[in-house]
Specification:
With 316 residues, this protein is α/β, with parallel strands linked by helices. It has eleven helices and 16 strands. A six-stranded mixed β-sheet has the order 5-4-3-11-12-13. Helix 4 links the parallel strand 6 and strand 7. Helix 2 packs parallel to helix 3 and helix 6 runs antiparallel to helix 9.
Length: 316
């Protein structure tokens, strides 16, 4: 991606904090893997100046601030301001708390790639309140979208939220499939070349660096995929694509809204036929949502660990 005369070929997920204003959403991997285990719940948070030093050491990149709720981190606004002229930023936020309001008021949207507004039916904001905060983003010209996790026990609330936001004129709403936590813990048995650990990094609140989100979630399986720490001088990226056998291989995901079929995508990427079973789409449509609501058996399978989008494709 080329913007402002720079070629942004790297994209990193930055976890400034594990803290969240919503507590314990049942479908949140941080809830299940991190907050439940003090050993991995890094309560220590590094100073903004330390993060700024690290960001200055990176090539121009898209920095995706996730968490936890990134606007809870003290110094978040200062960090965003320090990125101007070098990096693009793309935070994911549930829009709650005073930190979010400070972010909207003080941060420059001109180098913001996207704000993903994550709506949670069990959260602190009503649909109307959430939309009001979302409109603050749009009023300040932030590029933004709303994301809803299609968690089977909350399907009717998700449908209600989707229809409400659409009816109020929100242009971009993503229905993300529920990702069973257990799935992300298991290798899928094949190998594919991956840029995670090279041009894609996951940086945790204590500065530890992982190749990808599967390796963060796969507590205990670190080895060569733990790339050191950005604050103690041990961080060292792979420097090239490497073969990976983990579940979330990003090259094997496709989005049918782009008009690309699964078979065409496999051909474009020159993926051997024995790997095609791993290809999966990453979005759910409103029609899919209705199908799930009407089919309790599909809901049970999704909760048991089957990939929701794969099940829906098989039903078509």
């Amino acid at each position: 991606m080329v913007m402002f005369g720079k070629n942004y070929q790297e994209s990193h997920s930055i976890h400034l904090t594990w803290r969240c204003t919503l507590g314990n959403c049942p479908y949140c991997w941080v809830t299940r893997a991190i907050r439940s285990d003090p050993k991995y719940y890094h309560r220590e948070e590094h100073a903004p100046e330390e993060w700024m030093t690290f960001f200055r050491s990176l090539k121009p990149a898209i920095l995706d601030f996730v968490g936890g709720e990134p606007t809870l981190y003290r110094g978040f606004v200062d960090i965003i301001k320090s990125l101007k002229g070098r990096h693009l930023y793309a935070p994911t936020s549930n829009l709650t708390g005073d930190g979010f309001l400070e972010f909207v008021e003080k941060c420059d949207p001109s180098y913001c790639l996207q704000v993903t507004a994550s709506y949670h039916p069990t959260g602190r904001l009503s649909l109307r309140e959430f939309l009001g905060r979302f409109n603050l983003l749009e009023g300040r010209k932030f590029p933004c979208s709303i994301n809803l996790v299609v968690y089977p026990p909350l399907l009717k609330q998700i449908l209600e939220a989707y229809d409400y936001f659409k009816g109020e004129g929100v242009r971009t709403i993503h229905l993300s499939p529920y990702e069973p936590f257990e799935n992300v813990l298991k290798p899928y048995g094949g190998l594919a070349e991956c840029n995670c650990g090279n041009t894609r990094l996951i940086v945790l609140p204590n500065g530890d660096v992982c190749r990808c989100i599967s390796w963060c979630k796969h507590i205990g399986r670190r080895g060569e995929n733990h790339l050191g720490n950005v604050f103690d001088g041990t961080f060292k990226p792979h420097g090239k694509p490497v073969l990976c056998d983990m579940y979330c291989e990003p090259l094997l995901e496709y989005d049918p809204t782009d008009g690309i079929t699964l078979r065409t995508y496999a051909k474009i990427l020159k993926i051997p036929k024995e790997y095609e079973y791993r290809l999966k789409r990453r979005v759910i449509t409103r029609e899919d949502l209705l199908k799930l609501i009407q089919n309790p058996e599909l809901q049970i399978k999704c909760m048991e660990g089957h990939e929701c989008t794969t099940l829906l494709d098989l039903e078509t």
